[in-house]
Every structure is written in C-alpha cells, then in structure tokens.
C-alpha cells in the first residue's frame, strides 16, 4: 500500500471502530449501575430498572444522575396523574359521590406531590440530600392518602396511584444507595 492509501485505510478503520467501542464500553457499565441503583427496591426492582431505562439520559448517567432521573420521572408521573384526575372530575356525568370525594382528595394529594417533587429537584441541585429525602417521603405519604380516600374501591386513579407510589418509594431506595455509597 502507498502511504496515502494506508492513511485512508487506517482512518476509516478508526472511524468505524470508535463508535462501537464507546457503545461497548458504556452499555454494560450503565446497566450495572442501574441495577446497583435499584438494588434495594425489593419487589419493585423491575419497575425501577425499566423506568430508569425509559429515559435515554440514564445510559450516560452516574449514580447521582440516576437519582435525579428517578425524581424527575416521579414528578412527570405526578403531573400526568393530576391532569388525569382533573379530566375525570370534570366529567362527572355519572360519578358516584364517594368516587367524587376520592377524586377531590387525590387532586389535593397530587397537587401537593407535584410541589414536593419540585422542591426535591431544587434541593437536589443544592446537594441537600436530607431535604430531598424529606420531600420524596412526603410524596409517598400523598400517594398513601390518595389510596385511602378510595377506601379500597378500584378506579383508574387507584391503579395509577399504586404505580406512582412504587416509583416514589423506589426513588427513596435509590437515594439511600446514593447517600450511603
Ligand atoms: C407513570 O409511570 C409509569 C412507569 O414509568 C408509567 O407506566 C405510567 O404510564 C406513568 N403514568 C402516567 C399517568 O404518565
Ligand atoms: C366521561 O364520562 C362518560 C360516561 O361515563 C364516558 O363515556 C367518557 O369516556 C368520559 N370521558 C372522559 C374524557 O373520561
Ligand atoms: C418501599 O421500599 C422499601 C425499600 O426501600 C421496601 O422495603 C418496601 O416494601 C416498599 N413499600 C412498598 C409499599 O412498596
């Protein structure tokens, strides 16, 4: 090969190899880290792992990054559920009074949860992990209160509320791994 051909050959080789090496080096690392972050989530480990993976940013994230992703996912969930409750309570063509009461209670709880998770995100940005924990724990209590408001009756909201509760409870477990590392 002439030198110039060799150069082109080598640079093409490098270009085609580098991206694969980056992917190969990052993929197992981030998957292990997600599993490490989710290690204390017991029965809800699958939800913990799949929810973190649903955010593409989790691929490059360190443990701190995964914790903030978990809080943001919980925040987005709370916002979506609050919107959902609003739609349901505005559409009260044949809602029973007890269900309406449940919806009202859950609306209060979710407005609180949205606020508290916003506060958690702010506290996180200041590395005030103890405050983060307090705010996320308050969101777990909101979900419990919403669940109690339906007194065991099943509704679209109680199903979503259960998943939200697991998400925030998982977030507490991730924060524990982060702060005890
Ligand atoms: C809340 O998050 C869960 C898990 O990621 C997801 O399956 C669900 O659709 C979300 N709920 C809403 C209302 O966005
Ligand atoms: C409103 O309530 C009616 C009757 O229960 C139902 O058919 C309709 O799908 C509801 N709309 C929304 C947006 O939930
Ligand atoms: C909440 O998370 C803890 C682990 O951090 C777990 O032991 C507990 O079972 C979870 N509770 C619920 C109701 O999911």
Euclidean distance between termini CA atoms? 54 Å
Number of strands: 0
> How large is the radius of gyration?
22 Å
Number of DSSP helices? Answer: 6
List SSEs in N-to-C order.
HHHHHH
Unreliable parts = 4-28
Shape: elongated
- Helicity range of the residues? over 70%
Hetero groups in this structure are: 2-acetamido-2-deoxy-beta-D-glucopyranose
Nearest-integer average pLDDT: 85
Structural class: mainly alpha
Report the portion of residues in β strands: under 5%
The largest pleated sheet is described as: none
List the helices and strands and how they pair.
Blueprint: H1 3-37, H2 45-53, H3 63-90, H4 97-125, H5 129-149, H6 156-179
Helix pairs in contact: 2-6, 3-4, 3-6, 4-5, 5-6
The protein binds 2-acetamido-2-deoxy-beta-D-glucopyranose (NAG) (3 copies).
Description:
This protein is an all-alpha fold and 181 residues long. Helices cover 81% and strands 0% of the residues. It is built from six helices and no strands. Helix 4 (97-125) runs antiparallel to helix 5 (129-149) and helix 5 packs antiparallel against helix 6 (156-179). It starts with a helix and ends with a helix. It binds 2-acetamido-2-deoxy-beta-D-glucopyranose (3 copies).
List keywords for this structure.
binds 2-acetamido-2-deoxy-beta-D-glucopyranose; elongated; 6 helices; 181 residues; mainly alpha
In brief:
By secondary structure, this protein is an all-alpha fold. 81% of the residues lie in helices and 0% in strands.
